[in-house]
# Entry
Amino acid sequence: MAGISSYGVHIPRLRMPLSLAQAAAGKPSSAEKALAGSDEDSLTMAVAAAAQCLSGQDRGLVDQLYLVSTTPVFAEKSAAAIAAQALNLHGGVLTVDYGASLKAGAAALRAAVDAVRGGTARAVLVAAADMRTAEPYSAQDLQFGDAAAAFLVTADGPLRLEADCALNRPLFDVWREADAATVRSWEERFVIQHGYHAALGAAVRQLLETQGLRPDAIDAFAAFAPDARSHQELVRRLGLEPARAVDPLFGRVGNCGAAMTPLLLAQALEQARAGDRLLAGFYGDGAHAMSWRLERALAPAPGRIPLARQLAARIPVMSYRTYLQCRGLDVNTPPVDPANGISATVHFREQEADIAFTGARCRGCGTEHFPPTRVCYRCHRRDDFEPAPLAQRGGRVASYTKDHFFPAARSPVVAGMCEVEGGARVYVQMADYNGEPLRVGQPVEFVFRRIHRAGGKPAYFWKSRLPGGAEENHHG
Amino acid sequence: MADSLRDKVAIVGVGCSQFGENWSAGPEDMIVDAAFDAYADAGIDDPQRQIDAVFCGAVYPSRGTAEVAEALKLFDIPITLVQNYCATGTDAFRCAALAVAAGMHDTVLVVGFDKPKDRGVSGPSVAFTSNRGLPMTPAGWFSLCAARYFETYNVGRVELAKIAVKNHHNGTLAPKSMLKREITVDDVLNARMISWPFGLYDCAAQSDGAAAVIVSRADRVGRYPRQPVWLKGVAVTLGRNPQSDPDFDFLGWGPTRSAARECYRQAGISDPLRQIDLAQVHDCFTLTELLTYEDLGFCPRGGAKEMIDSGVFHLDGDLPVNTDGGLKSFGHPTGATGVRMLYENTLQLRGAAGARQVPGATTALSHNIGGTPQACGVVILGV
# Structure
């Protein structure tokens, strides 16, 4: 047996008001889309969702990690391997990067269930994250959003995969060549009609038919959709009650690509009651429909931040240029300096500290150090330390500055000392800062972010962040 | 072990180039200007014969020792480059004093120089060679005490602004300073932010420049025309890193306290506010000067605000600080700064500081602190 035992989502705090992308005096509205900050990418968002998913779970049991994205950080090199390190998974974890197809999440979930059923893994972590870039000011620019969702599949997971149906229907509907920055698409009516409705509609109908289920047997339908209208139309065509369709979050998150169905399945799980049947519809070069049954309520995870709170913690950007800078598309931003960047050998030596955020605790006097060191600051004992994982412990602001000088898409950059709960002091930047008043002693959490891309090498480290639900404050 | 260089070594000549954005001057030009200024001051007319060794200090040298040797055409003598963050110039001077006191050399030239304006950036350049420690700007490092200090002692940007106003005023009186412009507290408060709480006027100007001093031993000072200015104490210390020290209190900088303690011991200083007549302190940022008042023991911890408000550190106060405008206004070519302070204190102690002269000064202190910050140097001179 196998099923989903936990889930987590990550909605970036930045939001782009869609009015900024409606070049020709578009309709004024409060609609917006979630926007990965300039220090976020598919890897950091996947790690954030996975950390939510692992809240209260035993990380030591995770034998496999699947990272799912059509916007992977690397064409050659595993982002999943870095994610496993950032998440402090055990060294024997099997890591896989799923990608290319918008419906890759279904394949990953299916493989996770198979691995656990087959006994090759005790637990499999599946994390999907996407941040697709549309042609600026195009119709897709108003639809695409950035987000991530993650699931933990275990033998006793109460959300069981009852059945699934995959259809292979290759089509030039939406695509992106390996070296292209933005997604391209064919004429919209063709894409929706002969792609989306034809494939996803067929997969769902076939699944219901083989299972002998009527549409009203579905309690929640988590369906990918390119836009809100197509989503409504699909629900109507399938004969599902609109109330049973999971809110596709257009106008708030947007079409988040390979992460969309996972995000909506997680949203459905937040509301689901024991006995509910959740139907997940994935689309991309065909479709994949999965029927999940919640056999009993999921174990509560107090550390997990609910979707509603993540949606409420918003930082609207004030200009389209900020959006372009976050995407690396701003022509006025200097290109990455190829001569600069972190030394691979230095990174090799320091990755436990920088990626896993592990400090060193002196066995003599208990003092924690970050970065790890060989001689204790307080008792001067040599080489007598044990690892001190810091990432999951909160901390407090010890001192800070707001640096307006450091080149960044959003200024100022807050940096300073934080005291990790019960231990080390760390010098870190603050992520997602939005002009909130700061004071010494203020609580912070730690988040995994991309620090820079100098030398064409994305460099990752941890930042502090004010906990979710920070008061909203317009800032650009 | 505790020994002292007190009254064993004297400064017998000083020189300084014009500080500023010296677009048309290279390091060679400034080294020559400063060294030949010092030769003239010491009555040296045959440096290859009369200078026995050189200690130079620079933080961004292109070639270091060879630059100095070739600029001055001084060959076949020891030339050593000293580097110790912003205490570089002071440490080069300390090495020279030790070499002279040890009897190894009779006359040693100290040259501090830096040429940051060839780097193409208006402030410090931001290097992305690591993923920790960023933003990695000096303003970010030196502002680390601000939040905690402000909350603890009810101090704010206005007190810092008063320091910038004072140093800008003093800079107008120093012929070789970079900035000669009076400013107001409002100018400081309204300037664009660099790194909170530092606005533009809270930050020292990055500038080009070179300064030189010539030191000799007590038994030889009669050979030089000027009144000797005696070394009373010198200390350089390297303290804990505020970014990793588990016991750091964010209320001041430890290296200044340890260097001052040692320097005061050598010089016999027990009441610095009374015994020291003037001081050049490291004002890379206004807060650095404020914390230094306390770290040097000019006032108790938390007492700086009252002293600033009462004008103690003004040119006409009880203990004038940064009489030539300091790093803020005279300029801050990192390797030159410590040596420039010795230049100013020497002029003051000889009574040759012109419009900014502190009347009757007999004891003068100079102080540098640099890095995150961790390296500190303190020198006391007297006549």
Observations:
- The radius of gyration of chain B is 19 Å.
